[in-house]
Amino acid sequence: MMKLWTSGLLVGGALMASSMSSHASDAQGAMGWSHPNVTVEEAAPAPHVKSTAKEAAAAHPMVSRHHESVKESKENPHRDMSSFHHSIHWGYTGIGAPQYWGDLKEDYVLCKEGRQQSPIDISAATIASLPNMQVDYQATPLDILNNGHAIQVNYAAGSSITVAGKNYKLLQFHFHSPSEHTIGGKSHDMVAHLVHKADDGQLAVIGIMIDGGGSENAFIGKLWSAFPSASGDHNTPEGVEINVTDLLPKDLNHFNYSGSLTTPPCSEGVNWFVLSAPVQVSDAQLQQFRSSIFHDARPVQPVNGRVVRLGN
Ligand SMILES: [Zn+2]
User: Fold this and answer.
1) For 91, left (φ over 0), alpha (ψ -120 to 50), or beta?
2) What whole-number distance in Å separates Cα of residue 305 and Cα of residue 237?
3) Cα 105 to averaged position of ligand 1 atoms, centre (Å)
4) Hey, which of 18, 93, 111, 273 would disulfide with 102, CB 3.0 to 4.6 Å?
């Protein structure tokens, strides 16, 4: 797993970034936007897309996968340590690191056996006539905590997005560094994940890429002034309101695909919207985050034939 991470970032990233750019102009005409590091293809007619998905599934039947994992686990030295592992809390380094999440608890099995995991490297995308994403975020009293894995801001009821007629209510947003998803093999300094839930229980997450090197970001400044440095810290400063609309980039062009939570239990069926335009913070603001949360990003996972679509 560590090897994947390294090759994705350094080797794969450099290769992809250079070989992808030639197709970028094709996308511009059809969609009005593109990403320099992403290959963009015209959407195939719907029936073809369906059969492609079926073929992909047939190439990796669940049955044989399960046989493999049973065989693996018999020979897996970690198996004998399972009772030991059960007492280990998941994290990003050492014995609780992402490559072991699937062994820490039975509930976390998707972290190692799931076929639709996140994050991924987005290096190819299909133009599809996706409905626009409608965003309706209201102001909320600032409620910020350090949960030991991430800095999280809880959101009061009344804010949501609507995509394809489906409404997802905003529950919370949190930050990772570096960005988890990569685009054309490149990661960003940080990411904000805006977590939404529909009435049927489906999750939708918007990823906003964040880079240092900019001027001070007023929205982040408001959050960081209540920064909960230590694990377990929780601040609700009196009279401070924020609106996450203030963090959104001007355009909401995004990559859409079906993935998972990027933390245990790695549940799948998450509707991902990774915005292509990054926003900026100052180096000091980036440093303030990193001095407290050193690294909280899961490495990229195999795409396994999933289709990434372009939307706005
Ligand atoms: Zn996240």
Assistant:
1) beta
2) 46
3) 20
4) 111
- Cα of 191 to ligand 1 centre, how many Å? 8
Structural tokens at position 197: 């839930």
pLDDT tens figures, 79-94: 444 445 557 889 999 9
Across 149-168, average pLDDT: 96
Q: Ligand 1 center to residue 104 CA distance, Å? A: 20
Ligand 1 geometric centre to CA of 186 (Å): 18
Count how many Cα atoms sit within 13 Å of the Cα of residue 288 in the half-sphere of its side chain: 18
Residue 165's region, left for phi above 0, alpha for psi from -120 to 50, else beta, is left
Cα(138) to centroid(ligand 1), Å: 21
Residue 99 Cα to ligand 1 midpoint, Å, equals 17
Q: How far apart are CA 62 and CA 17, in angstroms?
A: 33
Q: How far is the CA of 192 from the centre of ligand 1 (A)?
A: 7
Please tell me the distance between residue 238's alpha carbon and the centre of ligand 1 in angstroms.
27
pLDDT over 70 percentage in the chain: 75
Taking CA atoms, 23 is separated from 124, 303, 306, in Å, by 10, 20, 20
Q: How far is the CA of 64 from the centre of ligand 1 (A)?
A: 31
Amino acid of residue 12: G
- Give the tokens for residue 68: 């493999």
Q: Show the DSSP H helices in 189-301 as ranges.
A: 218-224, 283-292
Decide yes or no: CATH 3.40.50.150 for domain 2-60+115-311.
no
Which carries the bigger pLDDT value, residue 130 or residue 91?
91
CA of 23 to the centre of ligand 1 (A): 30
Residues 254-266: pLDDT tens digits?
A: 999 999 999 999 9
pLDDT tier at 28, thresholds 50, 70, 90: very low
Q: What is the pLDDT of residue 73?
A: 39
